[in-house]
Every structure is written in structure tokens, then in C-alpha cells.
Design goal:
binds zinc ion, mainly alpha
């Protein structure tokens, strides 16, 4: 099975590895550029990255906002009213 070799010479394996570890440790400028190129020419890694981002986006979502406690609200109103 002959695979088309990407111009950047970056194998998909390396791309996925860098992409998944990039959140823990920064990826160097050179590798970032190579990853960018790889994304352009490799549809599979584009898809992979999109999924990865979605997963991280879900994990990074902040806690649902809690309603402001009533006491704090009245204090705020008082404070605003004093002005
Ligand atoms: Zn790839």
C-alpha cells in the first residue's frame, strides 16, 4: 500500500502526537509550521484536530454560572443607589 508522502515529511503519527501533547507542553515554532502544512495537505489530521479541539473545548468549559446570591444583589443595589 503506497501512501502519498506529505511535502513536509511529517508523518500523521507525529502530527497527532504533537497535537495531543501541545496542550501540556508548547510546540516549537518549527513544528507548528510543519503541523500547519500538514493540516493543509492531510484531511485526516484536519479531522483529527477538529475532534481534538472539540474534546478540549468540552473539558475546558467553565462551570455553569451560578445565580448571584440574593444578599450580594441587595448589597450591590445599595451600593449603586448610594452613588
Ligand atoms: Zn496526517
Amino acid at each position: 500500500m503506497a501512501e502519498k508522502k506529505p511535502l513536509t515529511g511529517m508523518p500523521c503519527e507525529e502530527f497527532t502526537q504533537l497535537a495531543s501533547s501541545g496542550h501540556e507542553k508548547p510546540v516549537g515554532f518549527r513544528n507548528r509550521l510543519r503541523m500547519l502544512w500538514h493540516q493543509i495537505e492531510c484531511v485526516y489530521c484536519r479531522r483529527f484536530l477538529r475532534q481534538l479541539k472539540r474534546i478540549h473545548g468540552l473539558l475546558a468549559q467553565p462551570e455553569p454560572e451560578k445565580p448571584m446570591p440574593g444578599e450580594m444583589r441587595t448589597k450591590l443595589h445599595k451600593h449603586l443607589g448610594d452613588r
